[in-house]
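> Could you send the Tetratricopeptide repeat protein prediction when you get a chance?

Sure thing. Input:
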Amino acid sequence: MSETTRPTPSSPETHVIDYRAAEQLLAARDPRGAVKLLDSVIAAHPENTAARLLRARAFFAAAQLRPAELEFELVLEREPDNAFAHFALARTFERSGRPEQARRHFRLAAALDPQPDYLAAARFEGPAGEGRSEADPA
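Output:
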């Protein structure tokens, strides 16, 4: 893109750039910076579930557990079969000291996608019947 055709601050191109930059900030352990970028993306596209899921992850990484919980729940209202969102919400409940709610969502995640981390957190047996240890979800 040339200097004369830069996207405007509220253009769809800018939102894509901000979303990608937020992914990079979260990967670089700057969750607050990621949240700041995602706020404008979500304000312009409140229906964007991917942006909400990324913002929920950023809230979780910043130890802002209540906002993370609300975002994960919103994602699950829209995508009830999203195993990752169930798993991440369970981790949020776990960090908030709510083990019963965490267990329910760990089990839903494992039922939806029986990958080892989800099975271990749900305390289910693995596919070959072998037990698994607790997963490190981050």
